[in-house]
Write a structure and sequence with these properties.
Blueprint (H helix, E strand, L loop, with lengths): L2 E2 L5 E2 L9 E3 L2 E3 L6 E5 L6 E6 L3 H20 L2 H17 L1 H12 L3 H21 L6 E3 L6 E9 L2 E5 L7 H13 L2 E5 L5 H13 L7 E3 L4 H13 L3 E7 L2 H11 L5 E5 L4 E5 L5 H13 L9 E7 L3 H13 L19 H16 L3 E4 L14 E4 L6 H4 L6 E7 L2 H8 L4 E2 L1 E5 L3 H10 L4 E4 L14 E2 L2 E2 L4 H6 L2 E9 L2
Parallel strand pairs: 9-10, 9-12, 10-11, 12-13, 14-15, 14-20, 15-18, 17-18, 20-21
Antiparallel strand pairs: 1-2, 3-4, 5-6, 7-8, 8-24, 13-23, 16-17, 19-22
Helix pairs in contact: 1-7, 2-4, 2-5, 2-6, 3-4, 3-6, 4-5, 7-8, 9-10
Length: about 500
């Protein structure tokens, strides 16, 4: 039986619709009873009134996490893995309801939302298994009367701040390794998309994750500063994991310095997409459409600067233009939609500014180039050519459905241009030449390189960047290692 939780969303399980904070296993209002609105970016309609947490609620959550930590950390890895596996299974079982909530508050098409929910479940499953493989080591002693060993121990209470563009997967990519390592967590979801995180919190309780181990304190802009202040300065918090803009990441890192908190920062990108003259253009175009227009261009690894060899430039642009014209844009709940809205009107304004700047500096408009009339934050898929490094869209992350193409001939100049950015998260290379692939991938200053594919995110591989794109890695064995401390034990024998 489907139950209507508001005028637009029907859920099989209405208990997944939560508008209160999760602290110490209980659903609570804010101390002052205040809330903030969450809106549908496709229509502008208000979806929910969510408890607005601040300093008091965050301190309560940190205390709950502190009290829960000793017992949770004392469990064996297998004992921690069991409720995490149940959590992963529950996420997958409730994929339809979670996808409906996600699409309503974030805007992406339902099929993309389903894929993200299953991606989120994969992190919980992976780290539940990795909990049993947090090995120490035995080091050959320097003398015969001593032994050297290392062990891995959980950091303690951790804090997580997640973004709005992947409101399901980014929660589990932080919480799952923290909990698997034996840490507890206080999570602040993005103000635009708290409902998905709260639904995950409900499922974590059903899975048997104890009270206080996983806490969620939603807030809007007016309360986020207070939440962040507690997370970055409270002496009980040992680590902060943040995904978001580089500017905010730098502020959080500075605030954490006073107590020397451990940091994982997954920040901005400015990814190059390189097409060589020997590339398979069908694969390159298909990959460009997937990587750029997934989530309407609102991902940190979306290609932002397209470099296409002059010999195949026209053919690539022609094929890409045709593929883009076939894309259907609209409300993510409608069947057959490929692109939903941008998260807000501010996102639309940024895209408009980048396109206008490029055209004013000589770029040629091939497709799109305008915001859509009517309700919602929609901007048409847009293709520009004759793009140059002086344009804003090459200097900044557009975070929208816009492709700007530049041509190249000389490989050394190409690599210089591709690396001419403060960021180094991801890059994409398309070529049939093994030698060229080796040269280019080794020369690129990025943490991730996709070769002849646009699909590069997976729970089993490390995710993170060089330069100002962040600190640390998420996913893979590196993801759980970042929530643990290495203890060296030097034991002498009598």
């Amino acid at each position: 039986m489907e139950i209507t939780v508001n005028s637009t969303i029907e859920l099989r399980d209405s208990r997944l619709w939560r508008e209160r904070a999760l602290i110490n296993g209980e659903w609570v209002t804010s101390e002052r009873g205040v809330s903030f609105d969450v809106s549908d970016p496709a229509t502008g309609a208000c979806l929910a009134h969510v408890a607005r947490c601040g300093m008091h609620e965050t301190e309560r959550a940190v205390l709950a996490a502190s009290l829960a930590f000793p017992a949770w950390a004392a469990r064996t890895a297998k004992e921690r893995a069991e409720p995490l596996k149940r959590w992963a299974a529950l996420i997958a079982e409730n994929v339809e309801d979670l996808a409906a909530i996600l699409t309503a508050e974030q805007g992406k098409p339902l099929q993309d939302a389903r894929n993200e929910v299953l991606f989120a479940a994969s992190f919980v499953e992976w780290f539940a298994e990795e909990a049993k493989r947090t090995y120490g080591e035995v080091i050959p002693g320097a003398r015969r009367d001593v032994s050297f060993t290392t062990v891995q121990e959980p950091i303690g209470v951790t804090a997580g701040i997640t973004p709005w563009n992947l409101p399901c997967a980014m929660v589990t990519r932080k919480a799952a390794p923290a909990l698997a390592a034996g840490c507890t967590m206080v999570l602040k979801p993005a103000e635009d998309t708290p409902l998905t995180a709260l639904a995950l919190g409900e499922l974590s309780l059903r899975a048997g994750i104890p009270p206080g181990v996983f806490n969620i304190v939603p807030s809007d802009r007016s309360g986020s500063q207070s939440v962040g202040e507690v997370m970055t300065t409270h002496p009980a918090v040992g680590k902060l994991s943040f995904t978001g803009s580089t500017a905010v990441g730098k502020k959080l890192a500075a605030a954490c310095a006073g107590t020397m908190k451990r940091l994982s920062l997954e920040l901005g990108g400015n990814s190059p997409f390189i097409v060589c003259e020997d590339a398979d253009l069908d694969i390159a175009v298909e990959s460009a459409v997937f990587a750029k227009f997934r989530n309407a261009g609102q991902t940190c690894i979306a290609p932002n600067r397209f470099f296409v060899h002059a010999a195949v430039h026209e053919a690539f642009v022609q094929q890409l233009r045709s593929a883009m014209q076939a894309l259907r844009q609209g409300n993510g709940r409608m069947p057959g939609v490929h692109l939903g809205p941008l998260i807000s009107d501010a996102g639309v304004r940024k895209v408009k500014a980048h396109v206008a700047d490029a055209i004013s500096k000589g770029a040629k408009l091939e497709v799109g180039g305008q915001a859509l009339d009517g309700a919602g934050s929609f901007y048409a898929p847009t293709l520009l050519t004759a793009v140059t490094p002086e344009m804003l869209m090459f200097q900044e992350e557009t975070f929208g459905p816009v492709i700007g193409v530049a041509s190249w001939r000389d490989e050394s100049s190409l690599l210089e241009a591709a690396n001419a950015t403060r960021f180094g998260l991801a890059a994409y290379v398309f070529s049939r030449s093994a030698d060229r692939i080796h040269r280019i991938t080794r020369a690129l200053e990025t943490g991730i390189v996709g070769v002849n594919t646009g699909a590069i995110a997976t729970e089993v591989a490390p995710f993170g960047g060089f330069k100002e794109s962040g600190i640390g890695r998420e996913g893979a064995r590196q993801g759980i290692a970042d929530f643990m401390e290495t203890k060296f034990i030097c034991q002498a024998y009598a």
